[in-house]
Automatic annotation (TrEMBL), chain A:
SUPFAM superfamilies: FAD/NAD(P)-binding domain. GO terms for molecular function: oxidoreductase activity. Keywords: Flavoprotein, Oxidoreductase. It comes from the Bacteria. InterPro entries: FAD/NAD-bd_sf, FAD/NAD-binding_dom, Ferredoxin-NADP_redctase_2. It holds the Pfam family Pyr_redox_2. This is Pyridine nucleotide-disulfide oxidoreductase. The lineage of its organism: Bacteria, Candidatus Harrisoniibacteriota. It comes from Candidatus Harrisonbacteria bacterium CG10_big_fil_rev_8_21_14_0_10_42_17.
Automatic annotation (TrEMBL), chain B:
This is NrdH-redoxin. Gene3D superfamilies: Glutaredoxin. GO terms for molecular function: electron transfer activity. It comes from Candidatus Harrisonbacteria bacterium CG10_big_fil_rev_8_21_14_0_10_42_17. PROSITE patterns: GLUTAREDOXIN_2 (PS51354). One of its GO terms (biological process) is cell redox homeostasis. NCBIfam families: GlrX_YruB. SUPFAM superfamilies: Thioredoxin-like. Signal peptide: none annotated. The lineage of its organism: Bacteria, Candidatus Harrisoniibacteriota. It holds the Pfam family Glutaredoxin. Residues 4-62 form the Glutaredoxin domain.
Length: 315, 79
């Protein structure tokens, strides 16, 4: 591993995020000899929790963690790129010459350009009890935590593919799994749903809005509102998995660039440039329609090539 | 040498990251798989007051999740 001694130089580019977009951007930036720092908590992005990824091109099957290692190795194989892991960016500010990027550990990076590849995070229910019982029954990663719910009655909120996959992860352990879906349709894969529906451990409740998580030290149940009758009902539960989609992690630049109504950074899809010159975005944090590892990597590369043109034009 | 225990599940990515971190820094640790060991699962929940893995016990100090800076501090790595 070769990194620049950290003396707070002026960077040409700071990449924020270490998913497929961040890794691809770092490799291309290094090869273009752009003075770059990459700041990320960890490498891998959201797929890191996936047990098996079968659509990363060139690789028929790989676990999320192995893919994350490949990303990190590929980035660290580049010369003269500063890699800052285990750090979170807390602030991005516009300056006269570019931007100041500050981390939670109070490290400061001055840079001419910023590429935001921060991805997205779990959407929360925002109901009473959710925060209080986070980790005490309320969970967001069935792949990680399913075994801890052995012999418990659990619920999964959300019937997209992530929700259905959570049920698949939970079935070997849980005593029962109740699927709570807000609307009257199942958005996930119909083949998977048909299989799950016929499993005797699975109960499906449609048109139900989850309204509160109940408990004392740990969660003991949840309340939901039957949207047809308006009636509030209670379920006894030892766990509840929230799988209701993702929120783009665009908070860092929400006062600097244009976001759409979903909170995604609006970019020019030819260049990945945001509404503010000097800031680019790619991957799930941008307003790309299809959220995919391969697309994120490609879009981030597009951004770096455009950043390279931008930096040269300013020389 | 600090006594390090880590409570894990086989499918937990952050458990693997924590173990990799220990290996890289030559830290000896005891791994307890809470899927197989029901009593350890109860101990872990009691110690950490929550149900997520990994839970790391360093000389009685409890860490939930893989928090690299906190672990580095507790194990006096890179100090």
């Amino acid at each position: 591993m070769r990194t620049l001694a950290f003396k707070n130089p002026m960077y040409d580019l700071v990449i924020i995020g270490g998913g497929p977009a961040g890794a691809a951007a770092a490799v291309y930036a290094a090869r273009k000899k752009i003075t770059t720092a990459l700041i990320t908590e960890t490498f891998g992005g959201q797929s890191i929790v996936s047990l098996d990824i079968q659509n990363w091109i060139g690789t028929p099957s790989i676990s999320g963690i192995a893919l994350a290692e490949q990303f990190e190795n590929h980035v660290r194989a580049q010369e003269d790129i500063h890699v800052e892991t285990g750090e979170w960016v807390s602030d991005v500010k516009k300056t006269d010459n570019g931007f100041t990027v500050k981390t939670k550990g109070d490290k400061i990076f001055e840079t001419k350009a910023v590429l935001l590849v921060t991805g997205s995070h779990h959407r929360k229910l925002n109901i009473p009890g959710e925060k209080e019982f986070d980790g005490k029954g309320v969970a967001y990663c069935a792949t990680c935590d399913a075994p801890l719910f052995k012999d418990k009655d659990v619920a999964v909120v959300g019937a997209g593919n992530a929700g259905l996959e959570a049920i698949v992860d939970l079935l070997p352990y849980a005593k029962s799994v109740t699927l709570i879906q807000r609307s009257d349709t199942i958005k996930g894969d119909p083949v998977t749903f048909e299989k799950l529906k016929n499993n005797e451990k699975v109960t499906v409740i449609m048109n139900a809005e989850t309204t509160a998580i109940l408990g004392d030290e740990f969660m003991t149940g949840a309340k939901y509102k039957d949207k047809e009758s308006g009636e509030e009902k209670k379920l006894k539960l030892g766990g509840l998995f929230v799988e209701i989609g993702a929120v783009p992690s665009s908070d860092l630049v929400k006062d600097l660039v244009q976001l759409n109504d979903r909170g995604e950074i609006v970019v020019d899809h030819k260049t990945q440039a945001s509404s503010l010159p000097g800031i680019w975005a790619a991957g799930d944090v941008s307003d790309v329609i299809y959220k995919q590892n391969n697309i994120s990597a490609g879009d981030a590369i597009k951004a770096v090539l455009n950043i390279n043109d931008y930096l040269r034009s300013r020389q | 040498m600090a006594q390090v225990k880590i409570y894990t599940t086989p499918t937990c990515v952050y458990c693997k990251m924590s173990k990799d971190f220990f290996h890289k820094n030559n830290i000896d640790f005891e791994e307890i798989n809470v899927v197989e060991d029901e009593k350890a699962r109860e101990d872990m929940i009691q110690k950490s007051h929550q149900m997520g893995v990994p839970v790391i016990d360093i000389d009685g100090e409890i860490f939930v999740g893989f928090n690299r800076p906190a672990l580095e501090k507790a194990l006096k790595i890179g100090a």
